[in-house]
Amino acid sequence: MSFHPNYSFKTIGVIHSCYTQKFGIPRQPGLVNEATATLELLPPFNRVDVIEGLEDFSHIWIQFIFHECIKENWKAKVRPPRLGGKQKVGIFSSRATHRPNPLGLSVVKLGRIYQKDKQIFIELHGSDLLDGTPIVDIKPYLPYADIVQDAKGGFAPSPPKLNKVTFSPLANKQCKAYLNETGRNAATLISEILSQDPRPSYLHDKENKQYGIQLWDINIRWQAKPGHFKVLYVEKVK
Ligand code: SAM
């Protein structure tokens, strides 16, 4: 048996996403449907022939680099949020970001494919990727092979429990103004993100603590209240 010990990959595209920072990004794709991202193909891959036929699929797999983790070391054991941050599992039994090879894998809903200024853009729905994420491969999702009926989900056997989210009158007004100005439905996006509880496990019992999340060009201030999360205000980044 002979193989090369190291391989390198080409970046075929880059993600433009509503998630401009890591805090708040859902832990898997398909959990926040309002999240839209656009994959821009980069030269020499920005050519129509490489994606010919892709529009016939509803979903695609994308493989990407956890580029914001590259400077940090990988860990042999990690504490998955689904285990309350208390128990450890092996890195290869988890979907954690700090891996020996910082490769991510997400299945996303395929949106419009279009060309602008000689560039090719592919719209993705429900992604869990940070703005600027480098993409190394795209593959069509094949239901006959990729759906596994009797699969077991280990420490995450079912979708995460959803939390209630409310908005202050001020935050409601600001979301409406932002929708009118940009066409972006910040209220739905924020609701879906917060309902997943983005807080690290060690802060779960800290009631009334305030948090900030940045999406696109807006800062969202919210508070963990007993039984729900309250959005306090939504402001443009200065
Ligand atoms: N679905 C992918 C997988 O299983 O490989 C990613 C799962 S990982 C647990 C999801 C988290 O990765 C997000 O919550 C976000 O914090 C982080 N993330 C997303 N894009 C990233 C990037 N480019 N660099 C570093 N971390 C990133």
UniProtKB/TrEMBL annotation:
Q: Which UniProt keywords apply?
A: S-adenosyl-L-methionine
* Entry-linked InterPro entries: TrmO-like_N, TrmO_C, YaeB-like, YaeB-like_sf, YaeB_N_sf
* The keyword S-adenosyl-L-methionine is annotated on this UniProt entry: yes
Domain (TsaA-like): residue spans on this chain? 9-150
Which superkingdom?
Answer: Bacteria
Provide the coiled-coil residue spans: none
* SUPFAM superfamilies, sorted: YaeB-like
Q: Does the keyword S-adenosyl-L-methionine apply?
A: yes
The membrane-spanning stretches of this chain are none
**What NCBIfam families does its record include?**
tRNA_TsaA
The UniProt similarity line reads: Belongs to the tRNA methyltransferase O family.
Q: What is the name listed in the Swiss-Prot or TrEMBL entry for this protein?
A: tRNA (N6-threonylcarbamoyladenosine(37)-N6)-methyltransferase TrmO
Species classification? Bacteria, Pseudomonadati, Pseudomonadota, Gammaproteobacteria, Oceanospirillales
